[in-house]
Amino acid sequence: MMMSKEHHILIGSVLKPVNDTRMYEKMALSLIGQHQVRVSIVGFDTKQRPISEKIKFYGLFNFSRLSFQRLFAPFIFFICLLQLRPQTLIVCTHELLLPGVLYKLITGTQLVYDIQEHYQDNILYLSTYPKTIRIALSTWITWKERVASIFLNKVVFAEKCYQPTKPHFSKLKYFIAENLSDTCSDGPKKRPGSVSKLLFTGTLSKQTGIVEAVEIAEQLYAINSNTTLTFVGYAATNRDRAYLYNKAKLFPFVRLVGISELVPHSTIVAHIKEAHLGLVCYPVNPANKNKYPTKIYEYLAHQLPFLHSNNPIWNQLSTTTRLGEPYQQKTVLTNIKTIQEKSKGTLQYLPLVYSWSSIETQFCKFLLND
User: Which of 23, 212, 247, 319 is the most exposed place for a label (fewest CB within 10 A)?
Assistant: First the structure.
């Protein structure tokens, strides 16, 4: 699909903010660097929107994860498509597949599905939704994906492990665009004499390990009163927000940034640069056991040592990079000493290897060429 005039690409999601790191900082900024491309991003409304001549933002959605209003999101999105008339449509959530297919049938647009999550596993194995409806929701998503596969032109996978679990997409052109960091350090990160600044970034919930993170910080604070644990990110549920606010009142070492509102990615990066140790505390379950959380790539790109849950594929990455260390609560202080010593010899080429720039050109060629 070589372009003779300006080509309009629309990237759409429901719960992701319009300035989402993957949609805006990675995909959109990469695409507008190509000749004669402009981009529209449709997603969750946010106060802070970047200013760009070639990227337009449409914050159509503003509701909670389990809101009744969410049922109308596909219809609202379809009306938006008819108004904006993109020539390439990238849908970043299963909810927008059916309106995307309908728009393709009307206009003949190129339809691309960016699979950012294994939605079926998330529904079945996490506690976001009531148990009584999990199987029905998972089945509904699988049905939508199977129907959409007939009309899709291309598929993008955010994780290598997704592709083998989606046989209905096997005949389509696909590209694996992992959640690599869009920024990286300029040089070797200076190691502190002792670890005191702990950092937990990204989605904040008990399912992503906020309880375990507090337990680690408690142990370190007991021997070092300068210890701080900073949570930077968004907590989607009132339960998780209440837990974090309560811990911030109870423990002097807990610091909170964001929590009840979305946090600009630049704020997350600033905290990564200042931290001594990142925490990746996901309780390992079937929904995440084969995934690499975005924060791992961000910590690697900025050469921030991190502790992580005992997951075989993360353990292998830790061995390769010398920046990560699996932990157990009963040995966490020893684990911290180990990662301090191990990360001193970190190779300087790591930031580029784990940054989006390493796949940016290939991604644009995949999307813009037949």
Answer: 319
pLDDT digits (tens, 9 = 90+) for 155-199: 999 999 999 999 999 999 999 999 999 887 766 666 677 889 999
266 with 304, same domain: the answer is: yes
Q: What is the pLDDT of residues 111-131, one digit of tens each?
A: 999 999 999 999 999 888 889
- 205 shares its domain with 322: yes
Distances (CA, A) of 92 to 130, 159, 288: 24, 14, 19
- Which residue range is the domain that position 92 belongs to? 7-180+356-368
Q: Are 51 and 152 contained in the same domain?
A: yes
State how far the Cα of 176 lies from the Cα of 250, in Å rounded to an integer: 43
Are 315 and 362 in a shared domain?
no
Print burial letters for 195-221: b (CB count within 10 Å at least 16), e (below 16): bbbbbbbbbbbebbbbebbbebbbebb
What global pTM score does this model have?
Answer: 0.91
C-alpha neighbours within 13 Å on the C-beta side of residue 117: 19
